[in-house]
Amino acid sequence: MSDITFTQRNIPAERLLEVNHLKKYFPITSGIFKKHIGDVKAVDDLNLYVNEGETLGLVGESGCGKTTASRCILRAYEPTAGEIFFRNKKQEYVDLAHLSDKDLRPMRPEMQMIFQDPFGSLNPRMNIFDIISEPMLVNGIRNRKEREERVVDLLKKVGLRPEYMVRYPHSFSGGQRQRIGIARALALQPRLVVADEPVSALDVSVQAQVLNLLMELMEDMGLTYLFVAHDLSVVRHICDRVTVMYVGKIVETAPTEELYYNPRHPYSEALMAAVPIADPRLQQDRKGLPGEVPSPANPPSGCYFHPRCSYCKDRCKAEVPELREISPNHWTACHRAEELSLEGLKK
Amino acid sequence: MTDQKPLLSVRDLQVYFHLDEGIVKSVDGVSFDAYKGQVLGIVGESGCGKSVTMKSILRIVEPPGRIMGGQVLLSKRDHPDEYLDLTAMNEKGKEIRAVRGGEIALIPQEPMAAFSPVHTIGNQIMEAIMLHCNVNKNEAREICVQSLKSVGMSMPEKRVDSYSWQLSGGLRQRAIIAMAIAGNPRLLVADEPTTAIDVTTQAQILRLLKDLQRQREMSILFITHDLGVIAQMAQYVVVMYLGRVMEKGPVDAIFHNPKHPYTQALLRSIPSAQKTTKTKLPTITGSIPHPFNKPKGCPFHPRCIDAIKGKCDVELPVEYIVGDQQFASCFRYEKNEVNNR
């Protein structure tokens, strides 16, 4: 393991996860010989970090690569390039991107995922006990008694009655199924939980319950979340910091309040302005962004956002902007970040 | 607005689904009025009956669903004081087919599934135009191009000959709106028109719908589960829960002075810019019951914090007047006047 541990690397001690230059390209092939004719750059040079005990929100529109990025971090997808440093239980930083499957196995219990669709993510032919205890079985907890005890414990934790253990997924509502999915993710006491749109399939009245549960569990179990979502008001409510993605790249990362009230990238500004506010007295004059999200297979030159950006200059069409720190902890990838005065949410 | 006659009046509508397992009362006594030039929002969670209400207005409820009672009245174009009862029409008859697309047009939820992939969008829009307007093919094409132009599609002369799969989600949604307005309808029924698209595109589409509504003095019946969209779009809001209207009123009253416990709880439970972050959100306990075991009495009583035992779980509340044009069906307001309309 020595060649893949990077304790000597300069990673601040509070980091649980640090992702550097992560890339995931899906090849486009054509013809009977599957000639490689291009790439869908789903994730293109992603840099982010998550501190222990915090919630990082990853937001963006559909197709921006947020799900692909989160799956690469868990090595559910094989990343094309890049480094993913994760601090293991021995407090060493391990590069997940370059671990062999065998070395990765002991790391898996520490990182778990909560899925978006509570209907598709539970096997209808397994009962709740089997669903929640399967990760334990896979990871060597063979004693049925012990597993049962832990399942009872987990069900109580997520607010379900332990008797439900013998039932099958079809007898539960969407919100309850999502709780089951959460219990399964927590079965191995992970430290990092990647939640991929955990509440977007739920009804408004149930959504609040699940958000509260996620926040409670975070405190009780000392979890760290990577929270992938497109609903900006949900993200604002539970995240400490937020990263905005656009066509496979990060355009801005900042502490939540800072990003919402003082965005420094035109795309973040447009995103804030586009969210309908549930208050008829705040009638928004929505300019709306012109055009649509470009395809990651054929992105525009320079800054990917320039064809839709109202602040675009010649430089933006030619040069790809670097992600840079313009004020402490506030990163943006815009050539004109300093000169622009952008509008966020109004207090 | 009170002295004006409504364009569409839904009265005590009941739509039941007769399944082998029993009867599901999807819509159980729903009443509301839509006026000319108004955006009426219907908001509710899944299973509240908002889509079935929409389908009954157009008479496209699929069996085993059946309209069991109530009326859907549409004022006549030439004589606004006279009404057609849509529920009395044969659902395959000539009359209702003249209404569909001609008087009331639908913007469906799924822009992907709404167009046939083997016909050009122009052909499909022209088909609708030729059904409702007495024009030949060339004129229909002209109207079609105009219509595409009015929804903000660039190069409409070229796009008219493209297939739906050649267009992006936002453009496809625009093409559907073009098809809906091509027959010059008086009422546009939009069933979750923006749920399948991204926020930045959603903002464009919402703006487009608002502009069209103003230009053409159309009415829009806007169905959604998104309270943010409703607040920004609607002038009058109907809040539904399990097949019943819980509360209806002007948008400002619904959001700033809600009277029904369900509306109040719903608004409290959404995260918003005004609330402090990282705090516990007030929730509504429990989950939406399955339509088969709908609770007796007020459908919301098992989740309601103010439920009165022996009353809310036995009787169904009627609509009480709780403000200007605002009505709530809750026993809390029992002493108020009853809405008799």
UniProtKB/TrEMBL annotation, chain A:
Keyword GTP-binding included in the entry's annotation: no
Swiss-Prot/TrEMBL keywords: ATP-binding, Nucleotide-binding, Transport
UniProt-listed SMART domains: AAA
One term of GO molecular function: ATP hydrolysis activity
InterPro entries: AAA+_ATPase (IPR003593), ABC_transp_ATP-bind (IPR050319), ABC_transporter-like_ATP-bd (IPR003439), ABC_transporter-like_CS (IPR017871), Oligopep_ABC_C (IPR013563), P-loop_NTPase (IPR027417)
The UniProt record lists the keyword Transport: yes
Domain ABC transporter: 17-272
NCBIfam families documented for this protein: oligo_HPY (TIGR01727)
PANTHER family recorded: D,D-DIPEPTIDE TRANSPORT ATP-BINDING PROTEIN DDPF-RELATED, TRANSPORT ATP-BINDING PROTEIN
UniProt similarity note: Belongs to the ABC transporter superfamily.
Protein name: Oligopeptide/dipeptide ABC transporter, ATP-binding protein, C-terminal domain
Lineage, opening ranks: Bacteria, Bacillati, Chloroflexota, Anaerolineae, Anaerolineales
Automatic annotation (TrEMBL), chain B:
Cellular component, GO, one term: plasma membrane
SMART domains reported in the protein's UniProt record: AAA
Membrane topology of this protein: Peripheral membrane protein
Main location as per UniProt: membrane
Annotated keywords: ATP-binding, Cell inner membrane, Cell membrane, Membrane, Nucleotide-binding, Translocase, Transport
InterPro entries reported for this sequence: AAA+_ATPase, ABC_Ni/Peptide_Import, ABC_transporter-like_ATP-bd, Oligopep_ABC_C, P-loop_NTPase
Family membership noted in the UniProt record: Belongs to the ABC transporter superfamily.
Protein name, as recorded: Oligopeptide/dipeptide ABC transporter, ATP-binding protein, C-terminal domain
Organism: Flexilinea flocculi
Taxonomic lineage of the native organism: Bacteria, Bacillati, Chloroflexota, Anaerolineae, Anaerolineales
